[in-house]
Amino acid sequence: MEQATMATVSDGEGLSSCRQNRRQPPAVPTGYAEMIEAVRLLQDRIAAAAPDEELIAAVTRDLTHAAELLAPAEREEAFRISGFSEELPGNGSALIPLVWDVVSDASVRRGRVRFGSFHLGENGAAHGGTIPLLFDEVLGRFANSDGRASARTAYLHVDYRSVTPVEKDLEFVVRFEREEGRKRYMTGALRDGERVCAEVEGLFVQLRPGQP
Ligand SMILES: CCCCCCCCCCCCCCCC(=O)SCCNC(=O)CCNC(=O)[C@H](O)C(C)(C)COP(=O)(O)OP(=O)(O)OC[C@H]1O[C@@H](n2cnc3c(N)ncnc32)[C@H](O)[C@@H]1OP(=O)(O)O
């Protein structure tokens, strides 16, 4: 059985084993990014379509076939790629809205994001649940960056300032405000040009040794 490589850091507080759940970034096979891109396109097309019965039957048949092809390739979490590869757009997860052009220094991280038809709530606006999803991802990655021990989201306070459009490139900025012991305080904002769509404040708490 393949073994995961676990990273360990010394943080001087006896919490080094908190990184026990970390593993090396997975190798990404050729064509993997394109496969995830195809899933994103599929999600958006299904969300945008009103197909007739014949088309529904054909798509269901092909999707079932694709699921059967993938079944033998299923692996335990430590060996999976989707959602774990920072070299892929959206970390290779079709769940997370597509994030790209991420640039960062020690305290500020900026990037762009695009919600698709898959994320539509109503009237051209992204579903309210997709915005905390984005913030959890981008704040969480920043909170866990630079070799820090693993931290989980304790809370996310999201203010919806104006509608967040789908199918449009938006900008986000995330700030690593401060660390107090095991607590990491983050803030962020999502903008459509100059207009603020949503703001967030989040707390991430570093896990104790053995804490799941
Ligand atoms: C393995 C990890 C993944 C990382 C890998 C990285 C790889 C790549 C990045 C991935 C990017 C995506 C990152 C998404 C991260 C998730 O989404 S994680 C999933 C969602 N979150 C969860 O499931 C967390 C569930 N909750 C818990 O596990 C526990 O409640 C927590 C958050 C770990 C805290 O519990 P605890 O360790 O027992 O904390 P506790 O000792 O009671 O409190 C510690 C301090 O925090 C404060 N605190 C705790 N909770 C709260 C709260 N809700 N409000 C206010 N204060 C609080 C306490 O008051 C205390 O303060 P002080 O007294 O020290 O001043």
TrEMBL record:
It is found in: Cell projection, Ruffle membrane; Cytoplasm; Membrane. Residues 1-27 are annotated as: Disordered. Residues 123-194 form the Thioesterase domain. Pfam families: 4HBT. Keywords: Apoptosis, Cell membrane, Cell projection, Cytoplasm, Fatty acid metabolism, Hydrolase, Lipid metabolism, Membrane, Transit peptide. It is an enzyme of class 3 (hydrolase). It catalyses: (9Z)-octadecenoyl-CoA + H2O = (9Z)-octadecenoate + CoA + H(+); dodecanoyl-CoA + H2O = dodecanoate + CoA + H(+); hexadecanoyl-CoA + H2O = hexadecanoate + CoA + H(+); (5Z,8Z,11Z,14Z)-eicosatetraenoyl-CoA + H2O = (5Z,8Z,11Z,14Z)-eicosatetraenoate + CoA + H(+). It comes from the Bacteria. CDD domains: PaaI_thioesterase. It is a peripheral membrane protein. GO terms for molecular function: hydrolase activity. The keyword Membrane applies. Transmembrane segments: none annotated. Its EC number is 3.1.2.2. Belongs to the THEM4/THEM5 thioesterase family. This is Acyl-coenzyme A thioesterase THEM4. The lineage of its organism: Bacteria, Bacillati, Actinomycetota, Actinomycetes, Kitasatosporales.
